[in-house]
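Exercise 7. Given the components listed, write out the predicted structure of the assembled complex. Treat all entries as one system.
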Amino acid sequence: MSSKHKWTLLVLLTMLDCLPTFAQSGTDWLENTMFASGKINVVVAVVATVFVLIIAYLISIDRKLKKLEERDKN
Amino acid sequence: MSISWWKWLSALVVLTTLIVGLKTPLSPGIPNVNPTKLDYGATSVTVTGYNTHFQKASESLQIWVKNGDAIFCPYETAIVDENTMRASFSITEVLEGAFFDLYVNNDIDGTLFLPQAFLQNGMEVGLKPDKTEKCLDRISVIEAETYDFPNQPILNETIRNILVHVPSWFAMILVMLVSLIYSIKYLNNSKLEFDTRAETAAHAGLLFAFIGLATGSFWARFTWGAWWVSDPRLNGAALGVLVYLAYFVLKSSVSDREKSARLAAVYNIFAFTMMILFIMVLPRMTDSLHPGVGGNPAFSQYDLDDNLRLVFYPAVAGWMGLALWIAQLRYRMIILRLRRKTRNE
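Answer.
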């Protein structure tokens, strides 16, 4: 596993770790936001997640291409 | 960071416009009435509002229907809840037209308007309509304080689609223009690199054209009532896509690289011209359901709404950036592939 992947995994795990704390620290901001105004924020979150992941995919392709281009030059 | 700033920026801008486009509330409106006919004599109708404040502003609430110049007020009204009210009209006069427009006015929502809300039933429509007495006292004019999107009849919440559907077409036109420029450049100096650039840009353009067709089709189904209507604008868009599909067929059918590049470059000039003709010029010459066609400029009905423009223009710029990014990715991929191929040979 490359060091970059390790970092991503670490960040993801830390985020997962934080989830229960969000839930416990109460019916606080996350619940309040998500259940507010007809739950439209859930839709916003889903659309944003899809879009961000597509962009992340584009970025990863871009980086890989850059690497290949550099290797090609040498 | 190895990724150029404009890629980050366009991704961020599109994400922001998506979120703002979904989060912004719709201004108050009247989506429907029941029944949709006013009979000779007395008729009771239920008026359904959306994001309205019938109860809160009940003191100032006024409702009336308009037929030509004649204004009719109800003899009785009842407020059910914030978004529902009932009104009873009694109309026996001679009318000017067959349809009644509905107006609701109050201190919070301002004037709400539903054109051709009711059809007359059993009344006399004549050249000499009866005059009606003035029945309205004070019509409140509301200065918009909240940030919201216009509530258009029929469109309703779908007006947000304009932030996705239209930018995808604009992005398509931009990358097709880039493709055209590289085709002309190729014809000038015969560098195969330019041919690849033209092809990959057209490829990205096709992706965005399909996004535009699909989103438009979905939007049409729930506003015009059909997935596809035989409309000059829609058929023009489909033809434009076909013209570009032919570009790829032509390109792949000639095996000689130089010859295929030259042919494709010449065809691309034709394709771009035809696409612009099909989607922008021809539809304007006839009647169409689609905005921006048949003499009505594209954004006339939203012209007054600066709120929508504030999100719309950045969305267009962001989508254009995304299209250029995708085109560039494909170009770099193909160049790499070609280089490896030539090295191996």
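Discussion: Chain B touches chain A at residues 2-3, 7, 11, 14-15, 18-19, 22-23, 25, 325-326, 329, 332-333, 336, 339-340 (CB under 8 Å). Chain B has a mean pLDDT of 88.
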